[in-house]
Amino acid sequence: MKRAVYPGSFDPPTNGHLDIIRRSSRLFDGLVVAVLENEGKSPLFSVPERVDLLRSVTAGVAGVEIQSFSGLLVNFLTKVDASVVIRGIRAVSDYEYELQMALMNRELSEHAETIFMIPAVEYTYVSSRLVKEVCRLGGDVSNLVPPTVLSRLHERLNPASRVR
């Protein structure tokens, strides 16, 4: 059985993330979507909230499980019996950073392989940071996130507004 891990902050999960999750799930026997516990950042949603959101939006995707982790990714790979890391690449700047991470993971564990996936064209510019910023300023992000996430974004960022 070949398992992969798709790690990230997912704050919030976007349609770009879902695109990578759906496509990755067809390539492997199991896919663990791993929410990084990084208290160094100031996330909009807590780790349990992000795990719940991801469970909600991936409920119909076969072979996907949602977990959280902290520490080294290679240790988490061992814990969940996976050897492949999935990373989404939107631009050359993503590649440069992700290449460094992939090489470090391989240095730490000779069994860690990284697969870079390019999201669907309509999501190549989408980032969680951009979605939060646009939503905070009152812009329409309904085509960038699943409806459940959109509702939670509006509750958190614009409590007086209504989802369209």
Please provide a written account of the structure.
With 164 residues, the chain is of the alpha/beta class. It has helices spanning 15-25, 47-57, 73-79, 92-108, 128-136, 147-157; strands at 3-8, 30-36, 64-69, 84-88, 113-117. It has a 5-stranded parallel sheet, with helices on both faces. The chain has one domain: Rossmann fold (3-Layer(aba) Sandwich), CATH 3.40.50.620. The model has no long low-confidence stretch (mean pLDDT 92). It starts with a strand and ends in a 7-residue tail after the last helix. The longest helix is centred in the middle third of the chain and has 17 residues, at 92-108. The protein has 6 helices and 5 strands; from the N terminus they run βαβαβαβαβαα.
Summarize the structure.
The protein has 164 residues and is α/β, with parallel strands linked by helices. It has helices spanning 15-25, 47-57, 73-79, 92-108, 128-136, 147-157; strands spanning 3-8, 30-36, 64-69, 84-88, 113-117. It has one domain: Rossmann fold (3-Layer(aba) Sandwich), CATH 3.40.50.620.
Profile the largest sheet.
5 strands, parallel
How much of the polypeptide forms β-strand, as a percent range? 15-25%
Can you say what the CATH homologous superfamily is? HUPs
Number of domains: 1
Helix content: 40-55%
The name of the CATH architecture is 3-Layer(aba) Sandwich
Adjacency order of strands in the biggest sheet: 3-2-1-4-5
Helical segment count:
6
Spans of at least 5 consecutive residues with low confidence? none
Measured between the Cα atoms of the first and last residue, the distance is: 43 Å
CATH topology: Rossmann fold
**Rg:** 16 Å
Average of per-residue pLDDT values? 92
